[in-house]
Amino acid sequence: MNIVNSLLLFKKLAFDIFETMKNLIHKPFFKKFLIAVGIFIVFVWLMNVVVMPWYVNSPELKVPKVVGMKEADAITILKDNNLEPLVSDTTYDEKFPRGTIIYQRPNANETVKTGRRIYLFVSGGEPTVSVPLLKGKSLRDARFSLERLGLYLGRIDSVASENPLNMIFDQQYAVGTPLKKGDSVGVSLSIGQSIGTITVPNLIGKSLSDAEKVLADSSLKVGKINYQPSFSLLPNTVLDQYPSKGNKVNPGDSIDLFVTKATEPDNQHPNMEN
């Protein structure tokens, strides 16, 4: 009796399952599910029967070394070896010239399949920094702003202006100009409004005798002369002056000069003479 009841119960359960499946087949969602399952089965079959055998049996080769080469040369060599070069990134590196390969992945001499992608990293050359805003700063603040970026304060031109005393009102390079670390940036420093009546002439590049004549014609005189050695300029050539050109001074004021002097090749230290 128990066996008969079990068979009847199993028959009923099977019938219910059959009816449920028949109802589901007619529903759009279930049809889409069956299609997706079919596509997945076909995909797996293609991978196992077609793609994987082709990949496994494809020729292998060793990746050539292209680190240190120019980008164009590296790409040509990889393509000639049936590999696919792909420039991945540009990195600043002072050890490698701009436009050369500094790193490749996979590495040289690794065994790969033909057609493998080789990722290349190109050098952007020596790193640069952007010139900061120096206008409106003091010399101390400007020097700090530059040095924290790896730059240095260069030539300082002291010029009379309507700007506050000891304030930088102009700079050699515009804000954002890219410079290499170690470069210098010149500035113009205000000495306040001028009270003089004579404009300081430009003496740089003139001989000491010519500079004396120009100053005399302007009712000015030579002040302290600082001699500095030079291997490229003639002796007694004016290298710099203080105050610089354009400043206003009074009649009879002195202009200090920085002047070249003859020197021996082994003489590396300038002497100061009055």
Instruction: Report, as a whole number of angstroms, the end-to-end distance.
Output: 134 Å
Number of helices: 5
Shape: elongated
Task: Give the DSSP E fraction (strand runs of 2 or more residues).
Answer: 25-35%
Uncertain segments are 266-274
| Percent helix range | 25-40%
- Radius of gyration equals 41 Å
Topology as a string of helices (H) and strands (E)? HHEHEEEEEHEEEEEHEEEE
CATH topology description of the largest domain? Trypsin Inhibitor V, Chain A
Q: Compute the average pLDDT.
A: 83
E-strand count: 15
With strands numbered from the N-terminus, the spatial order across the biggest sheet is: 2-5-3
CATH architecture classification of the largest domain: 2-Layer Sandwich
CATH class of the largest domain: Alpha Beta
Largest sheet: 3 strands, mixed
Number of domains: 3
Structural class assignment: alpha/beta
Describe the structure.
By secondary structure, the chain is an alpha/beta fold. It folds into 3 domains: 2-57, no CATH class; 60-123, Trypsin Inhibitor V, Chain A (2-Layer Sandwich), CATH 3.30.10.20; 197-274, Trypsin Inhibitor V, Chain A, CATH 3.30.10. Helix content is 30%, strand content 28%. It has helices spanning 2-25, 28-57, 71-80, 139-147, 208-217, and strands at residues 60-62, 84-91, 101-105, 111-113, 117-123, 128-130, 152-159, 168-171, 178-180, 184-190, 198-199, 221-229, 238-242, 248-249, 254-261. The strands form 6 sheets. It has a 3-stranded mixed sheet with strand order 2-5-3, covered by helices on one side. The chain has a 3-stranded mixed sheet with strand order 7-10-8. The longest helix has 30 residues, at 28-57. The relative contact order is 0.09.
